[in-house]
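does this look right to u?? heme C version
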Amino acid sequence: MIKGKQLFFLLCALSLFAACKKTEKVSVEEDNILNLPSTPYDYEQLTLPVYLTTNFLLGPGQNAAADNDNTPPDNIVTNNGATLGRVLFYDKSLSVNGTISCASCHKQDFGFSDDRVLSAGFNGGNTRRHSMSLINARWYDRGRFFWDERAESLEAQVLMPFQDPVEMGMTLDQVVSVVRSKSYYPGLFEKAFGTDEVTSDRISKALAQFVRSIVSVNSKYDEGRKQVNVPINNFPNFTVSENNGKDIFFKPIPAGGGGCIGCHSTEAFINPDNGTTNNGLDSISTTDLGVFESIKNPAFLGTFKVHTLKSIALTAPYMHDGRFASLEEVVEHYNSGIKNHPNLGPALKDPQGQPVRLNLTVQQKTDLVNFLKTLTDESIKNDVRFSDPFK
Ligand code: HEC
Ligand code: HEC
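got this back:
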């Protein structure tokens, strides 16, 4: 039994303890703020299905996704490196007013893209273009990033949002000094790189490792693909409509298909080495000149990166300006809306040089949309390795 006097002392001791705790609050909180596993999650052991590692003759320019890995030899993904990258990716204190992290605009629930047409930066300002999904960034042989490919590598790209005046509003020196000031980083840097030294080069490497680890292999498409020898065969797990949509996606336009695989190529659906092109959104480029803004060659006017279609159903709205709200609108664009831009991709022109009209039936358009939905990889959406460690 606790008597009155004892209770009094107990309460005093407790309040003293509370007072002590208060002075330590910052570091105590920071140490506990992160929810990381004691053994790091596995980001290294990429077990890829054979159709991502072996060439299948789909047509000219087709090769395996894994042949197009842009991982540089000095930045192989490691479990500890990607773990550090994950923390940096979700850390809001790396924006000038502590409100924005990479994940604010690259949301796990939306295929690491943003459901907003334009994303909101630290001050509420809008980004110039629509955010991009980070899935399968690794299988892009050209290794260039952004809609206009202005970043020469993923390592270069991942430092740019910090310094963007709309996005995170920092200087690199500021980023490095905030990282140095946080009690949770030294241990993470030590595990990732051998010492706790914080440099912008290490921040870039860790973030790039995290992004490269986001690889999609578990969609309904993947499940079906494992059961057939070549992608053009019917998939046993697909509905009739999904298989018909797949036919349209893979078949060339002159053969009655949509020719989509010609540009969204390899089975990472990404076009790893052919470079940017134009898909006829506008007849002339006015406000956004695409690659031409950095390479002043008319051949690049209005051309943009062909981005992965994996988990495309999660990443609406679509295109570099987010102009289409749904996959139905995208399909209608390719079906009837292609404009004759001077740099329109040859695959989207008819023999007379005019924009193609696919003339799909209502059912065929539905089939194509249903096929695109099979590319959704729910496992990435729910994967704890890619989730917010501050929660
Ligand atoms: C305020 C929103 C915002 C924030 C914050 C942000 N991004 Fe982005 N991100 C975008 C937008 C918008 C684009 C496309 C911009 C363009 O092409 O001009 C993009 C493009 C990218 C790309 C290019 C993908 C590709 O396939 O070419 C990568 C990679 C990327 N961001 C990673 C990051 C990382 C890492 C961070 C944190 C350091 C980050 N982003 C922070 C909005 C944001
Ligand atoms: C000539 C090459 C080409 C062909 C053929 C092509 N696309 Fe595209 N696709 C692109 C380009 C380039 C973009 C990005 C355009 C932009 O934002 O300015 C794009 C964007 C998309 C997007 C939006 C991606 C995103 O992240 O917002 C979808 C969905 C899409 N295409 C589906 C298809 C389908 C379905 C077909 C077949 C009917 C097809 N594409 C045929 C080049 C092509």
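Residues 4-23 form the longest helix (20 residues). idk if thats expected tbh
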